[in-house]
Request: fold
Amino acid sequence: QQQVKQSPQSLIVQKGGISIINCAYENTAFDYFPWYQQFPGKGPALLIAIRPDVSEKKEGRFTISFNKSAKQFSLHIMDSQPGDSATYFCAASIVSMIELSFGAGTTVTVRA
Amino acid sequence: GAGVSQSPRYKVAKRGQDVALRCDPISGHVSLFWYQQALGQGPEFLTYFQNEAQLDKSGLPSDRFFAERPEGSVSTLKIQRTQQEDSAVYLCASSLNREDTQYFGPGTRLTVL
Reply:
């Protein structure tokens, strides 16, 4: 049973545009929400993460928005660049339990 | 410094063969995780070690799968009598301590014919 649902499955954005990826979860015990970026042939790499005590976190061009009441969180990639073309995974965990539950992934293609 | 490394990067096995996949974590990392990533899907948790102790193996899909980390560093994931449904990328991750960021290796792509 997938504990984190991610959408869309794929998206195409023009260079300079905004990419938005959404995730939803059911388990209210989750208290850590990371986003991972994965390039073909590579393992996932942590991009940015948030805990539920804040509603937004920004690092450079990447922003996580978190809505605790709706049990949803999203990744916004501002000023998208061709080098951002990758698969993005949201994930969630209960920190004390360690195990990460991943979404199915979103393949982002940024067209120059 | 060096990241997590895994070997082999690619493995082709005939159905019924046993395979062993190796993970070298980042030096000094106490925690080590194995995940299975099916094509087009997100990684799914298999098992977790803290030093040499396997503290969680709830994600292992069958008793054909087992993992070890005898000296608290290198880990091996072994799959006995491989089946076609075992075909996936097997990812290893390590973290300094249990609640720290997990750093992933490049994975081993297993194809069972």
